[in-house]
Design brief:
The protein is α+β, with helices and mostly antiparallel strands. Helices cover 67% and strands 10% of the residues. Strands 2-3-1-4 form a four-stranded antiparallel sheet. It starts with a helix and ends in a 5-residue tail after the last helix.
Length: 321
């Protein structure tokens, strides 16, 4: 059985080598198709920038201790929008692409969507079926914005592509600005809600503090000359309740002032680790990638055709193994 399998494997290899001219022709066609494809696809350039989460530094400025800020940074399960991965999902969403289509990049004279309809170049085979008027510009914008998240370093790399390197850089910076506005706006909404919540908590804590203070003062005044152990213990209990209520009131006040500070001056959502940089080489199309793809298709297709043809002739009895 093993010898038969080896014989069939050797026969397949020998059959493929026997049709080396066919392989040479198909690989030559693959090279020609790759060249034509790359020439037909307009060149694109890429621009990148890198952002980092700046929540810890902001928390320190707002009165948190080093330990509190560190603990908050390690517990990101309930951070909501304030998460570097959430930034990434937002930037690569279709809704964000629609917003970017409405922005006006400096020097273009129109919003980005209309600029693409007038200046975006497409391969000839796309123009045969879809006109510029029917082109899905939002999908073009969506595909031109890519992100890469580093969980280890807490950074977000944004990359934009365009057929003009200057436009790619302008788009990349506009993405950063739009993201910053989004995060700041969400931060402002949450800060306002927190301020309202902490105002209620502060008011309640203050009322409990005033009530405890009043009970303690009244009892202390009414039993000023008493030295009974029972009355002394009661006075200490009321004083202890008053001290705890005062501590809780101070904590509630600090939380309210922190929330108020965020409302009055929203914290910067992130820091720019690396500013917008245009990559030197053409980002796409890449000839080597297309060449390898078409060569692989040619080799696999030719091999299947050769072997299936051999099998067909053997079944008809026209050839022997």
């Amino acid at each position: 059985m093993a010898n038969n399998s080896n014989h069939q494997s050797w026969s397949a290899g020998r059959e493929c080598r026997r049709h080396w001219r066919t392989y040479l022709i198909t690989c030559g066609l693959a090279v020609v198709i790759a060249v034509v494809t790359v020439i037909s696809i307009p060149k694109k350039y890429a621009a990148r920038l890198t952002l980092a989460d700046e929540s810890k530094e902001t928390d320190l400025l707002l009165g948190m201790s080093q330990m509190q800020a560190w603990m908050k940074g390690t517990l990101k399960l309930n951070m909501g929008y304030k998460n570097i991965e959430v930034y990434s999902h937002h930037v690569t969403s279709r809704t964000f692409a629609q917003k970017m289509g409405r922005i006006k990049l400096a020097g273009l004279g129109s919003d980005y969507e209309h600029y693409l309809r007038e200046h975006y170049r497409r391969p000839w085979w796309e123009r045969l079926f879809i006109s510029n008027e029917n082109m899905d510009v939002i999908s073009v914008i969506e595909e031109s914005i890519k992100t890469e998240v580093s969980g280890k370093f807490g950074t977000l790399r944004i990359q934009t592509t365009a057929q003009d390197p200057v436009v790619a850089a302008l788009l990349c910076d506009s993405v950063r600005t739009a993201l910053e506005r989004f995060v700041t706006g969400e931060q402002q909404k949450i800060a306002l809600q927190l301020k309202q919540n902490y105002a209620i908590l502060q008011s309640q804590a203050e009322q409990r503090y005033r009530d405890a203070q009043q009970r303690y003062v009244q009892y202390a005044d009414s039993h000023n000359e008493s030295r009974l152990a029972l009355e002394t213990n009661e006075e200490k209990a009321l004083q202890n309740e008053y001290d705890k209520a005062y501590e809780r009131y101070n904590e509630a006040t600090l939380q309210y002032l922190r929330a108020e500070a965020l409302v009055n001056k929203p914290a910067p959502p992130f820091a720019i680790v690396k500013n917008v940089t245009v990559l030197g080489n053409v980002h796409s199309p890449r000839f080597l990638a297309y060449l390898l793809a078409f060569l692989s298709i040619a080799l696999i297709t030719t091999t299947w055709v050769v072997l299936l043809r051999k099998k067909y002739l053997m079944l008809k009895g026209g050839e022997e193994a």
